[in-house]
Amino acid sequence: MYTKIVVPVDTSPESMNAASHAVRLADAVDASVHALYVARPPVDTDDDGERSQSRSERAFADVAERAEERGVDIETSILVGDPAASIADFANTHRADLIVMGTHGREGVDRLVNGSVAERVGRLASVPVTTIRLRDGEQSVRSPLDAQRIAREKLAHAGHDDAVIEAPSQQRTAWVVHAADDRGEYNVHINSASGQAKLVQVG
Q1: CA nearest neighbour of 69 among 146, 155, 140
Q2: Is 0.70 topped by the overall pTM?
Q3: Is 127 a residue whose pLDDT tops 80?
């Protein structure tokens, strides 16, 4: 089956949706995840380097948090070069079993996860490529049950296993799940597109 899954990341919802899929799959088959951030050259100026580092740190932090919540081993690498060739070369060289990519990302690495890049990776890589498409306006968290499950995982990861969870409320781009335990009250904000969750103590 799979032992190493490569996932290119940037800071777009499409990329984070693909990262979530990669982590869930790795958890199911006991594989590790290697997250890649690819910067296009040149990145030799201070401003370009700082912006690239900031974006890569945010992207890695997001996927690392998801992996930690599920107990999945994760490594990260920053590459500089043509995105499709860099991703394919890395997967081929490091004997990955699968590449998971989002499509139509618009941030971070100059549209790293747009359709044409994913197609080129598929042609260049010697391993299978799974593309996760998130269409305009599409949500990866579609139901209150999905939102409650994500909120429960986020609360448990923060040590609030016994928190009582209320019914989620749906906003335009997010779900909000209120919860409480003997230590306080919390809101879990869940991005509808990417599934990324943030825990905020409110009382």
Answers
A1: 155
A2: no
A3: yes
